[in-house]
Specification:
single chain; 293 residues; mainly alpha; 13 helices; globular
Length: 293
């Protein structure tokens, strides 16, 4: 019988005996990585150009509004109105950020590596969604904080004026959060459908911009009820409808100056909640199918 020729060499591999941090820390690491990805942190200089250009634009606009207010002594734009005014930039920001978060992983085929670890497939999708929501909220809320600081330091009413500014800021931040949740849920769902970033970005822009003409058509129909429900047809106008109902005094202080939604404000709120819930559920379903392949 021939002598065995194989030799087992001890090269120092040892079983891991350290602390296993668990699911919560994996989720947190994935969330933080996603947030950094949106703003290009830890990536090449090219990846930082667009997100920080958008950050610069909204910050400069906020600083300009603050400077004008300090000169004329009047509010040029409320915090909630600022979120409305910058929403068009948010669309393009989502169109770039969402594919970076999910399309790259789909194209490169790394999802089996993610799911080979003790990471529930739902956690992956929710961490990415939370990263995008946080990034969009910071994009709209950060400049509002700049406006608040400028107003707080220039108010002639001292602490009382600062307190009133804070009471105006908080609804503005909540409204920015509404924009962030709706846009992130839709954008990430569309981006998760393809591994090609260009197609994902085009699909996101199409969803937001191509639904706007539908609102215009419904707004000119002879039915008043249809006119008041027209804003439901587009994600952007849907959020504005909720804002008109919940933040009427901050968004449209003049009587009759807001979108004509009549008494359908609660309907807009319910539809918004259902839209976000549906997009989130479809996103989770999408990744359950991807992980099962």
């Amino acid at each position: 019988m021939p002598e065995p020729t194989g030799v087992i060499h001890d090269i120092g591999y040892q079983r891991y005996t350290g602390l296993r941090l668990g699911r919560r820390h994996v989720f947190g690491a994935l969330y933080l990585h996603g947030l950094r990805t949106v703003f290009g942190l830890g990536r090449s200089a090219k990846a930082k150009i667009f997100p920080w250009l958008v950050v610069g634009i909204v910050t400069v606009v906020a600083a300009g509004l603050t400077a004008v207010r300090s000169q004329i002594g009047e509010v040029v734009m409320t915090y909630a109105q600022f979120a409305d005014a910058m929403s068009w930039l948010v669309i393009f920001f989502v169109a770039v950020a969402a594919p970076e978060l999910v399309s790259r992983d789909l194209r490169s085929g790394v999802l089996p590596l993610y799911f080979s670890r003790p990471l529930p497939r739902d956690d992956y999708a929710l961490a990415k969604l939370l990263s995008l929501v946080s990034a969009l909220w910071l994009l709209l809320g950060g400049p509002q904080l700049v406006m608040f600081l400028g107003a707080a330091f220039t108010t002639p009413d001292g602490l009382r004026g600062t307190w009133n500014e804070l009471l105006d800021l908080l609804p503005g931040l909540l409204y920015a959060g509404l924009w962030a949740v709706v846009f992130a849920a839709i954008g990430l769902l569309v981006a998760s459908l393809t591994g090609k970033r260009a197609f994902a970005a085009g699909g996101i822009v199409a969803v937001f911009l191509m639904t706007t003409p539908i609102v215009g058509v419904l707004s000119i129909l002879p039915s008043q009820a249809v006119n008041e429900l027209a804003l439901l047809a587009s994600p952007s106008t849907l959020v504005q409808g909720v804002g008109s109902w919940a933040l009427q005094d901050l968004l449209y202080p003049g009587a009759g100056t807001g979108p004509p939604i009549g008494g359908f404000g609660p309907v807009y709120a319910v539809v918004t909640a259902l839209l976000v819930a549906a997009c989130t559920a479809l996103l989770l379903l999408r990744y359950r199918k991807v992980a099962a392949r």
